[in-house]
Structure formats: structure tokens, C-alpha cells
Amino acid sequence: MKYLTIDTTTKVSAIALAEDGKVVAEGFLHTSKTHSERIMPMLDQLFAAAAWTLSELELIGVVRGPGSFTGIRIGIATAQGLAQVLNLPLTGILSLDALAWAGWGRNEDIVPILDARKNEWYTARYRWTAESTFAECLMTPQALSISECLEQLKELEQRICFVGDAAGKAKQEIEAALGDRAIVLPDYLSLPRGAYAAQEVWRRWQEIGAGEKVEPYYIRFSEAEVNWAKKERARKGENHE
């Protein structure tokens, strides 16, 4: 089965072409341009380089969050548009699940951390075993303050391997909190990659075996939604006076 994956949940645009779980080609861009400016030229170049055509695709996978609210919407809209035009099944995966593949085969617990702004991380915790074909999720995805996340991890005894777009930025803070129990992978391994999404999409497809309705996975409300809720509460309060 030939398929395409799209990940625009962070500042990285990551796409991949894969067949039966094996990556054929991937694109990675971490520039000042927006996802909407990058994604279609990347797709054109990747298909040309792989000598594939859109008509050969049998599935489209997309990373649906958590991450950037705008990025999530762009990725899902692009995937949905292609799936509708090509009449293909669509499947969605979580960004943190995909990033767990950065730690494939490692002995440490894998902790993806994504910048959630407001001094918070989107995070989860995973573990690979010699027998496993995918990482076991030990802590479900959630938004935590940086201090709260590190305090929770300090209580564990095992070593922790950090991946994700916040890992490199917080390397000193992580190492100060966890000492030699912390391993922070470099950006070329820990940033979102099309290859990681391709592996997780194939695992997901093997699990469900059918297309699905893909919706954004935000974890928390956006700034606009928070402000709207505040205005609504204020408006209702005024109406009751």
C-alpha cells in the first residue's frame, strides 16, 4: 500500500511517501515560511523525486495534534482535500505518538516535549521493549507546566530520553533537574520527521484497517477561545445585573 503522511503540528513541515510501512521519500523544512507556503511545493517536489503520481496513493495520513493550532488546521485541511479529491481513506495520528519513534529501540523511557507556549509543554511518556512493535504509552498526552513535568519525571528512577521541538531549547533546564538520568537527543533526531509519522500511520492503519473521520486534537483551548469564553462570561454577568 502506497501512502502519504503530512505533519504540520510544529514549525517543521514534515511529509513522507511510504509503502507498506517502508519510507520511500521524505521532506523536511524548518524555515521562516509558513506551512501554507511550503506544503504544496514540497509535495510536488517529493512526488517528482520519488517518481510517484497522486493516482498511485491508496491512503493519506495526517498528524492531528497536539501542537500549533494553525498548523494542525492546515495539515488536516490539506489531507482532507487530497483525500476527497482522490477518493482515498484518511487516518489521523497524534504528534507525540509519532515522536515516540525517535526513540525506537532505546532502553530509556521516551518523553516527547512540544512547545505549548505559556511556559507549558505538550508531553507524554512511552517505553519500547525488545518484544514490542510499537511504543507502549505510559502517560497519556497532556499539557503541563515545565516545572510540573520535570517534577513528575524526577520521581521516576529510570533514565529519560527527551525528543521534540522543546527538547533542545530546554536542554540545560532538563539536565539541571534530572542530572545524568536525562538524555536529550539532538534536533536532527528529535524534531518531527516524515519518517516517524509514516511509521505511526502504518501502525495505526494495521490497527483499524479503515479510514476514519479526522478531527483536531488540541488538548487545551486556543487563546482566541479562552478570550471568547471570558467575554461571554462577562456578557452574561452584565445581563444578569
TrEMBL record:
Coiled coil: none annotated. It holds the Pfam family TsaD. CDD domains: ASKHA_NBD_TsaB. InterPro entries: ATPase_NBD, Gcp-like_dom, T6A_TsaB. GO terms for biological process: tRNA threonylcarbamoyladenosine modification. GO terms for cellular component: cytosol. This is tRNA threonylcarbamoyladenosine biosynthesis protein TsaB. It comes from Desulfosporosinus acididurans. The gene is tsaB.
